[in-house]
Amino acid sequence: MMADVSSVxxxxxxxxxxxxxxxxxxxxxxxxxxKDLGVAPKIIGKACDELDIKIKDCELGCF
Length: 63
Description:
Blueprint: H1 10-19, E1 24-26, H2 27-37, H3 41-51, E2 54-56
Parallel strand pairs: 1-2
Helix pairs in contact: 1-2, 1-3, 2-3
């Protein structure tokens, strides 16, 4: 079940921090993380925004 985009949990934020390298996360890593956590890619994008982490190498325009 996909969570609402307005609810970025601490679990999601922690997972994003774990995979972000130097304040960046690649688009493929962000999409995989969303799938692994069972959340919409937009939630990963919102978590990145809140954590000031940039998404690079975007392939599909998901974020």
